């Protein structure tokens, strides 16, 4: 049996619900061999982020080089990248190894409010990482930052998706978690058409790490050779089931279940 491999380049969450930990658990559940390049260590639990420690830049490029020298990933995702220096080196390395199937989760601010990307890094994200992304998966506040547009309606979301597409991402997936209404609609734009992925909204405070888990599931499915729409449909079912199955861990914003 061929073992497909996926690499996550992201931050560590000591609480185990988001970041590298959520990515690896998701890869495992979806039957893909997971590898990591850690960009930052966070001291974190369900109550919030207590500390952020970026890994020295040489340490990040060396982790990617170690993987590039031996273990070609079938798909790669980026999560928390924290600053422009990290974004530049990560983008250069991905290009150097000609890795395709790149899922960019433009992690900016944790649900508790802690900044996971410095403001000075937004331009670097647009200029270096977006042009090589197979798909970018912003939530609504992140799509507002990337497009410079306020988003209130589905039409606003479509306009923002077109603007972000024009920055170079081949597919733009704007998630609906921060919108209102009973239906949860995620909107995909592939440059030609819009596709809506709809599900029932689940009201819970335990959604820590859902963005990481969703983008990791897309990455796993792309690694297995699924096309973007198939990968998103499977990832959407995976995250829906994960949120429904409330683990009730910790006294703050708890993690979702990662079991398939
Ligand atoms: N911590 C790390 C290291 C992350 O990569 C992410 C991803 O978005 C988060 C925290 C965010 O967690 P939350 O879902 O609570 O916003």
From TrEMBL:
One Pfam assignment: Phos_pyr_kin
Gene3D superfamilies: 3.40.1190.20
Superkingdom field: Bacteria
One GO term describing the cellular component: cytosol
Protein's UniProt keywords contain Methyltransferase: no
GO molecular function, one term: ATP binding
Start and end residues of each Pyridoxamine kinase/Phosphomethylpyrimidine kinase domain: 13-257
Family stated for the protein in its record: Belongs to the ThiD family.
Descriptive protein name: Hydroxymethylpyrimidine/phosphomethylpyrimidine kinase
């Amino acid at each position: 049996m061929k073992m497909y491999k996926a690499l996550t380049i992201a931050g560590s969450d000591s609480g185990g619900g988001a970041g590298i930990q959520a990515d690896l658990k998701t890869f495992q559940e979806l039957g893909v061999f997971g590898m990591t390049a850690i960009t930052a260590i966070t001291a974190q639990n369900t109550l919030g982020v207590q500390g952020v420690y970026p890994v020295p830049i040489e340490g990040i490029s060396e982790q990617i080089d170690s993987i590039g020298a031996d273990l070609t990933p079938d798909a790669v995702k980026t999560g928390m990248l924290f600053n422009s220096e990290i974004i530049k080196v990560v983008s250069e390395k991905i290009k150097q190894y000609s890795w395709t199937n790149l899922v960019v989760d433009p992690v900016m601010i944790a649900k508790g409010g802690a900044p996971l990307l410095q403001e000075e890094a937004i331009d670097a994200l647009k200029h270096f990482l977006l042009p090589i992304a197979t798909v970018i998966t912003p939530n609504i506040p992140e799509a507002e930052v990337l497009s410079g547009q306020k988003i209130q309606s589905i039409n606003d979301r479509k306009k923002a998706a077109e603007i972000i597409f024009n920055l170079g991402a081949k597919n733009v997936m704007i998630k609906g978690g921060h919108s209102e209404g009973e239906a949860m609609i995620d909107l995909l734009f592939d440059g030609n058409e819009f596709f809506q992925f709809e599900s029932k909204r689940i009201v819970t405070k335990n959604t820590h790490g859902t963005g990481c888990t969703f983008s990791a599931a897309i990455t796993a499915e792309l690694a297995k050779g699924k096309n973007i729409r198939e990968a998103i449909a499977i990832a959407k079912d995976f995250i829906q089931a994960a949120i429904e199955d409330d683990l009730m861990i910790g006294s703050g914003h708890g993690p979702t279940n990662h079991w398939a």
